Each structure stands twice: as structure tokens, then as C-alpha cells.
Amino acid sequence: MIPELAHIFKGPFAALGETLSVNPAPNITIDAFFTCGQLHETLDIFSRRWSAPDPRVVATQWSKTYFSTLLPAVLLPAMLCNWHLPLGTDTMGLQLSPTCAVAGFVFSSPGGRCDISRGTPRLFDFLVEGHLRPVVEMLTAATPLPAKVLWSNAGNVFETVVGRASAMLGNDHPAVQEGMEIMADRRDATGRANPLFQPVRYIDNGNERIRQRRICCLRYFTPELGYCKSCPKPDI
Q1: Alpha-carbon gap, residue 131 to 128, rounded angstroms
Q2: Which pLDDT value is given to residue 114?
Q3: Distance between CA 59 and CA 140 in Å, rounded?
Q4: What tens digit of pLDDT does each residue of 71-118 get?
Q5: What is the pLDDT of residues 107-161, one digit of tens each?
Q6: How far is CA 123 from the centre of its chain?
Q7: Treating both helix axes as pointing N-terminal to C-terminal, what angle do 174-184 and 55-81 enclose, rounded to 10 degrees?
Q8: Long-range contacts, stretch 8-16, CB < 8 angstroms, 24+ apart
Q9: I want to staple 162 with a disulfide (CB 3.0 to 4.6 A). Which of 137, 179, 207, 210 is the partner?
């Protein structure tokens, strides 16, 4: 737990806070982890939970543990009080479970509040551009997984967190509005294709509203896993 954020990570959010810690000199930075061979050792151990793992499935399922651990814990203080954790991959470390799933993150400092106003970077740029983009690039270089699948895995979590924040804070909350705007824009602020554009869509099917990813995560290539509940592949 980061003491400066203890007032946020309490009650139902306490478990999120336990995934974050501060150490100015982590054992290994994320940059080094992805480039020195430790990632491949980690994926090898992570893959042993399946009898016939496909390398793409191992990478996609591991990346889900990364994004689902990081994004809720980082977005909560950002959305509630503009608190930015220092997400530079050259100073930040990670923690692994005994089975090599991502279990937590180590930061060089507790970060601090940022003044978000017109003419300054958008609220989530520190996460999207400052962390997700380099992480996706490094994972794409080190695994057989396409960048669009990795961005979809991150976007799936991002959409879930923004949706829950909407239910808690209301659609008119500035952070909720900005999160929704990011997912609605085909282009980012620089004019590039927005990798978080519409990660999820909702389809009316009779009396049922189905939540469906726009891009498949490829986990079905390992038969033990099959299709996820929000798979976009037809006839599932």
C-alpha cells in the first residue's frame, strides 16, 4: 500500500491498494524485464497451467494479468483526484505471483496530484502514452501477439473501469467524460489511429444486451480455455 493513497484504497478498493508499493530502486525495471530474457522465463512458467499452451494464448492471457492488475489501481486515484502515479517503464518494477501472473507494481515514488486544464496533456495521457504504448511495443517485439490484440486487452479493462466509475461518479464527472471520449475517438490527439477506440460494443439481442469485444483475444487457440464470454467471433 502507498500511504499517500490510503484514503482512496479502502473498503471495496483495499485489495487494489495492496498491489502497489514504492521502492526508488526496484530489483528490475519493466524495461529490463521485457528485454533481458526474464519475460520469456516468466511466460514459460505461466504456460504450465495448460497441457498444450499456444504461445499466442500464453502471451495474451499473461498480458491480461498485467492490464487487469495495473489499470484499475492506476485509474482510481487518477479519476478521483487527478493523482498520477509515476508510470515510466525505466523506473517502475513489477511483482509476480508464484505462477508468474502479474500480482503488483513497484513505483519509484508515490507520484502526486496533477493540474489538468485546457492546453495541458489529457488526464489519461500519462497512462496511455506514458506507459501502455511502450509496454505494448515491447510485448509485441517479444511475443507472437499482434499489437491490436494487446491494445484490445488493455481497452477491455479500461472500458470496464470507466463503466464502473460512471456508475459511481455519474456520466457528468469530468474523468468519466474524458474516458468515454477517448473510446469514442478514432484518432488520438496527435492524429494517429487511436488504439483504444471502441474496445467494446454492446449489442441488443432480443431482451438481452450483449457485451462484446471488438477484437478477439485469441485465447481459444488453447482448447482448455475456449472462447471468452465477450468474444466477438460469430456463432458463439
Answers
A1: 6
A2: 84
A3: 10
A4: 999 999 999 989 999 999 999 999 999 999 999 999 999 999 887 654
A5: 999 999 887 654 445 788 899 999 999 999 999 999 999 999 999 999 999 999 9
A6: 16
A7: 140
A8: 8/76, 8/77, 8/80, 8/81, 8/83, 9/73, 9/76, 13/76, 16/72, 16/73, 16/76
A9: 179
